[in-house]
Design a protein that fits this description.
alpha+beta; Aminopeptidase; 11-stranded mixed beta sheet; 4-stranded antiparallel beta sheet
Length: 327
Amino acid sequence: MISIKKYTEKLNNIWDDFIFKSNNGTIFHTQRFLNYHQNKIFINHSLLFFDKDILIAVLPAAVIKENNKSILYSHPGASFGGIIYTQNFNFITYSNIISCLEKYCLDNKFDRIRLINTPNIYHQIKDDSFNYLLQWKGFIQKEIYISHYLINNFQNETLNLLNKRKQRYIKNIIQNHKFSYKINENFDLFYPILLESKKLFKTTPTHSLEELLILKNKFPQKIHLLLFYQDKIAVGGSLIFFTTNDTALIFYNAINPKYKQEHLATFQLYQCMRFSKNNNKKIIDFGVSHTPETKSPFDPKFSLIQFKEHFGAKGVLRVVYEKAYNE
């Protein structure tokens, strides 16, 4: 018999320990990560699922109000989430967890539930049973995003993953000592570059400078800044999250726009690949590939996708599921 318990701070250690032992949890789903927000008010409504006394799944979640409707929402503090569960579930257990969650939503008078499932590249054991059952039980695909990732090649040189043109750019930069880089914590140098880069697309960074400093302090071994220089002047930077034991996410890859034609962005991603490989990360997530400057946030950005494909990256879906109840 599966039961649900609402998260409280007393359950913090149990929750975070579970995430790192789960099938599809990442640092984004730890309560330690989710409570970093500055000037953003979320009503945490995370849930724990127990089979008798054994914790088998959790849902990082918050209560969001939209048009006077109460929505149980995959926690806005994480890029993705959904139900995080242990390995080797059977089909019936997946089904029972969803049924239990739906009953909880009805009992607590939620109007809707919205889940942003963790992409399968972060799953230790890949199983589409959960996605199938959500749709079979009436959840609709509310939104869909395309992200790109690559699998590191530990046998061969990282450069071989890139296409021939990108390989020439990298070799030229290295041979002519155009750029150098350091792994450091100079976020004060990085953030103005990030702001300027985002401004080109009429967007702002997901994190404030203060939030990045908080996150780095919380996860000193899992968040790394690669800062790139020309003549000792910072001209670009990449921020990498070690999301699990064998995956990394390049959350930001920003350059001073003046250096766009010098292939700095290419050099930065290449060094991120090498850095991740040296830290035994099998999979590197390059992030979503959409066009923020268009009316629809789901429009694919073909130029960005092509750029990532030149590194050997392939697409993976981020799916947002929704179901309405008291409407």
